[in-house]
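GYD family protein
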Amino acid sequence: MARYIITSKLTDEGAKTLKKNPNRVKEVNAELREMGIEVLEQYVVLGNFDFMTIVEARDENTIFKAVVEYLSRGSVRTATYRAIPVNEFIETLSQ
């Protein structure tokens, strides 16, 4: 399983939805689980984006499919990053 960091920013429509239904965040996390993505940690953040979510998935295609699904709804914009554990990185450099 690979880890990814997804940063997301609500659109105006997404902010309206969240205001009406604050539990929507947890509903989305359950939908991600059904798509094969496990939410490990999630934070509301201040700054250039609204949420930072750390997830695990079996591969990039699983992540791509989920991200496209959510982008197509028009409620959020995202950026996704592959997160490599530092020990794995060091091991790769040592080979």
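thats it. The chain has a mean pLDDT of 95. Strands lie at 2-10, 38-44, 51-57, 76-83. bye
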